[in-house]
Specification:
alpha+beta; four-stranded antiparallel sheet; 7 helices
Length: about 240
Amino acid sequence: MARARHGSYLFRRDGSTNWWIRLRAGNQRTEKSLHTSDRREAEILAAPMIAAHKAALLAARPRLEVTPYTLDPGEHMGLNGERVIATTRELIYLDAAGALIRTEPNSPARRLVNMPMGAVLVDDGTTKPLAELRRIGPIIDLAKLRREAAPIKNGDDAVLETYLKHANITGYFEREARTVWALFRSLCDKPLKDADRDDGRKLVAHFESRGLKSATIAKKVGWLTAACNLAIKEG
């Protein structure tokens, strides 16, 4: 029988001196030997796997995700059947004959992602009892997700603001940098001075879970790298 400390990812199997790592996601469980009997070495080897596991769990949760655009550039179908041409700046609404209906800014937005099948959305002002709604399906509390998606501004935000102003980053690239910064802050719930490589691995693991290629991930992480490097030079 496997022996594990309560709340720990590491354990030892009976008859083995090596440490193992156990990761759970839903009904799935993964166990892997770390091929060492030294506890501290096992913790070092397990750290990146645990960080990636936590990031994947977080990425799979229902959440409001910050996106650079209300709609990605391209052609879309509107809620009322109209065509919507999205550019990096505008949303252009056209009727069936191609005539212009209206235009709107294609500004940064939040989208609800990972909504479970049959989920029930509740918000401030919902009057039906939650017990009744739970019989319909899993509940998604939009008000709670909005609070989680809006981290409180603090001194760390000046790191990004200083870099954007110093490097004169505007337009699409500014939106992308701000989106990556907001995502990192949601994954790393600690002051920037206390962040470490595992927190960086969480961000990379999140992007990997979304299917992004390594070059794209490097470009996105590069915004944070550049901002921190400037802050270091500025003292």
